[in-house]
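This section describes the prediction task in plain terms. A model, or a person checking by hand, is given the sequence of a single protein chain and must write out its three-dimensional structure as a string of tokens. No templates, partner chains or ligands are provided. The sample shown here is typical of the held-out split.
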Amino acid sequence: MERLYTEQLDIAYGDVSIVDNLNISIPSGQITALVGANGSGKSTILKAMARMMKPKAGTVFLDGKSIHRQATKDVAKQLAILPQNPIAPDGLTVSELVTYGRFPHQKGFGSLSKEDKEAVRWSIEMTGMNEFYDRPVDQLSGGQRQRAWIAMALAQGTNILFLDEPTTFLDMAHQLEVLKLLQKLNKEENRTIVMVVHDLNHAARYAHHMVAIKKGTVICSGTPAEVMKLDVLREVFGIEADIIPDPRTGVPLCLPYELAPEAHKSAGGSAPAANQAAKSNELAASSR
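The expected answer:
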């Protein structure tokens, strides 16, 4: 049995249900990518599994125990989460930011122990941020800033790392920089990584396991080859696409070329349908 999984998980914002009866397992020691259209509930599921929000019903299990019944510090020693677009206080340096990752291991407001300092040093070195040790985070480029936040999560010393759209707003080079770092952490440190990813081809190339989600429901899960199927892409994303093997890795690549028929109907629907779409967009915004 995997270390982290859910059973009959229901998640809601007020009276609005986002996820119903979710049963999902996260393979230990692998990279898992949650994929789906905007507003599908990916980020909501990630937050619930990382204990950032409490489900309406059901359970998230970590090492056989309900994650929401465990002490916060105990959970923080097992998993770390990097939310979307985190913002550091003005003037905070990289080393100061990374030090925050040691809070779950400290007692009261004591100074850093030798172990804490070593964890901070190692995390900064692992993420290639040595030259920016004393640089304010708000003076870094987007890719450097994201690596600094990942270093903070690493300093937390957890085996499980959650990331919510870690490549959002980054250019292609910085996206690859972050994804290769996560791949390195998985290979060299055996970290279990769970991330929400928008780019299907990034998910297929860097993840071992993919979970395709639509309206809070898992449509398909498995290896990239098992998930990147034409029928799955039609149902989850509303697209027609060609699937070809990556010439370097052999994993499937998605080349979308047209909206699926149902997506066409949705785009050209009546006024009531358009109103419903607007409501769906508002719901999507609230569920991110």
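For orientation: The longest helix spans residues 172-189.
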